[in-house]
Amino acid sequence: MEPMATGRKNRVELKDLVSYLAGSLVDEPDTVRVREIQNGDSVILEVSVAPDDMGKVIGRHGRVARAIRTVTKAAAARQGRRAMVEIVE
Q1: Integer angstrom CA distances of residue 3 from 6, 37, 51, 89
Q2: Domain for residue 4, yes or no?
Q3: CA distance 59 to 6
Q4: Which of 57, 47, 41 is nearest to 16 (CA)?
Q5: Residue 58 within a domain
Q6: How many domains does the chain have?
Q7: Which of 17, 41, 54, 57 places its Cα 20 to 30 Å from the Cα of 65?
Q8: Average pLDDT of the chain, as a whole number
Q9: Which domain CATH number covers 45?
Q10: By residue range, what is the domain housing residue 36?
Q11: Is the pLDDT reported for residue 6 higher than 70?
Q12: What is the DSSP string of 16-64?
């Protein structure tokens, strides 16, 4: 097994990750917008989708939103950063 490559080449952009995840869930992927707010080594990612797609991104009892947050936090932790995902109207 080959060791995992390190460095900036393989760094996942958190904004692109969240945009991909949300866009894969909704009926109107062109309306997905992710705004990135930097604060030191922390980042807030605000996700907005079409009103009809809001339920698909949140999911029952917030399960889908929680999954998106978990994946994003894991990717951020690998980069030594902190990330918060907020779903906004």
Answers
A1: 9, 32, 43, 42
A2: no
A3: 34
A4: 47
A5: yes
A6: 1
A7: 41
A8: 89
A9: 3.30.300.20
A10: 12-88
A11: no
A12: HHHHHHHHHHSS-GGG-EEEEEEETTEEEEEEE--GGGHHHHH-GGGHH
